[in-house]
Amino acid sequence: MTVALVTGGGSGIGQATARLLAARGAQVVVADVDESAAQATAAEIGPAAAAVAVDVADAASVAAMVAFTVERFGGLDWACNIAGIAPQPKPFVEHSYDEWHRTIDVNLSGVFFCMQHELRRMLEQARGGAIVNMSSGAGVVPAPGQPQYTAAKHGVLGLTKQAAQEYAAAGIRVNAVLPGQTETGPMRAYLDAMPDGGEKMLRRLPMKRMATPLEIAQAVVWLCSDDASYVNGDSLVVDGGLITR
User: Fold this and answer.
1) Which one of 40, 80, 148, 220 has the minimum C-beta count within 10 Å?
2) Range with the lowest mean pLDDT among 29-33, 122-126, 174-178, 208-212?
3) Nearest in space to 100 (alpha carbons), one of 43, 146, 163
4) What is the 8-class DSSP label of residue 205?
5) What CATH topology corresponds to 3-238?
């Protein structure tokens, strides 16, 4: 049976991905910095899922997460690196060093640490695998008021391409998903904080609505699956047509 690992699996896109993976027959480790959220998601899925706490910005915590996955289900076939944070938007010159550092630690270094440990395990198994990293539309165009988020999400694409070329011959595919605005708790809070409740932003979306977490999860799971067996090093934009390139 396929064994899948999902970081950020306690809520939003990560939670939707964990649910969908399990529905498609995978055994799933739900990893999240919020252990109670991870446990709730795993309990909802049932015996095919297990929960583990992880701080992706801590390499030792990431190593323990991968070790837990292997111990619990006997291996690792698919890894979905979805955990991330977004800073409050403000002018470029007003962001502090601490704000820069925390976002880069989680959104970029976290993906690097996860990939290192996931790749090592997949190489040891010698049966291939698939990794999907969560970038963003901010991986190809700037996120207004969020320079560190833009830098991190651009960096995720670089890591994805690097690993995709290095490990293709080992049968390991590495791709990225770039979602647009998605109906998650943090996004809803961000919109609610706007004077117009986000109406102006929503009006500029070509489909006049945000994505659901499931719509993004479907792209992630497809990239993991054999249906995408010759897709490697790709940056799949899933944003309803907002960014056309």
Assistant:
1) 40
2) 208-212
3) 146
4) S
5) Rossmann fold (3.40.50)
Q: In what order do the strands lie in the sheet with 27-32?
A: 49-53, 27-32, 3-7, 78-81, 129-134, 172-179, 235-238
- What residues act catalytically? 149
Query: Which positions ≥6 away from 122 have C-beta within 8 Å?
Result: 76, 77, 128, 129, 131, 167, 170, 172
Residues linked to residue 31 through DSSP beta bridges, in sequence order: 7, 52
pTM over 0.70: yes
pLDDT above 70 (res 175): yes
Q: How far apart are CA 48 and CA 34, in angstroms?
A: 20
Mean pLDDT across 74-81: 98
Residue with token string 């955990």: 83
Per-residue burial over 169-180, b if 16 or more Cβ lie within 10 Å, else e, is: eeebbbbbbbbb
- Domain positions in the chain: 3-238
> For residue range 118-161, what is the model confidence (pLDDT) as tens digits?
999 999 999 999 999 999 999 999 998 999 999 999 999 999 99
Structure tokens, 168: 């293709």
